[in-house]
Amino acid sequence: MSSTLAQISRERRDIVSGEVMAEGRLIRFVAGPDGVVTPDLARKLPGRGVWVAADRTSVDTATRKSLFARSAKARLVASPDLANQVEHLLLRRLLSGLGLARKAGELTSGFEKVVASVAGGKAAFLIEALDGAPDGRRKLLAAVAKSVHPPRLIGLFASAELGLALGGENVIHTAFLAGRSADRWTTDVQRLSGFRSLFPEGWREEPSGRHAI
């Protein structure tokens, strides 16, 4: 087991509910130099960590009730928009993870290649650009609906964002191939799902909405 996966499997206590759960279901926070509560998504910043379940309600509750300071037994200030900060950082981590996966040859892009990976059961995630044409997406989602091992649907980024992350232009359809990198990426996807939907609400009416995380 890699160090990252070992970290994810360790257990910590959520300061809001008191429940002990795997690190992969939590967000670690530390005190910044100025006493401001700082998200530590990579679990690497120095200092004593304070752990909160990875969902907007829990982070908002910890902020509103000053649970960070109480848990750390120190004077800590949590920004009212802390949950939004976590959401933004998770989105950046997901994009960064896509860039790393591309370099490792674990992504495939382009309509025909993505269809083939979905049909062959090799795709863990189908990543669709927010501004892609509905017709192409519907065809891909129809392929997902027929797959024995359907990938999960992600619709979080515009084509320009995907292009910057993947070193291309007009990136609309991408498949994240199943494997260890996809497993690690899943952890951040699941954490982000506690803060926002993973694809636009309107996509639920299309064939594979049921395959989303």
Gist?
This protein is of the alpha+beta class. It is 41% helix and 17% strand.
Task: Walk me through this protein's architecture.
With 213 residues, the chain is α+β, with helices and mostly antiparallel strands. Helix 4 runs antiparallel to helix 8 (180-192) and helix 5 packs parallel to helix 6 (134-146). Residues 208-213 have low confidence and may be disordered. The strands form three sheets. The chain has a four-stranded mixed β-sheet. Strands 4-3-5 form a three-stranded antiparallel β-sheet. It has a two-stranded antiparallel sheet with strand order 1-2. The longest helix has 22 residues, at 82-103. The protein has eight helices and nine strands.
Question: What secondary-structure arrangement, pairings included, does this model have?
Answer:
Elements: H1 3-9, E1 11-13, E2 20-22, E3 26-31, E4 37-39, E5 50-53, H2 56-64, H3 67-72, H4 82-103, E6 107-109, H5 111-119, E7 123-128, H6 134-146, E8 152-154, H7 159-166, E9 173-177, H8 180-192
Parallel strand pairs: 7-8
Antiparallel strand pairs: 1-2, 3-4, 3-5, 6-9, 7-9
Helix pairs in contact: 4-7, 4-8, 5-6
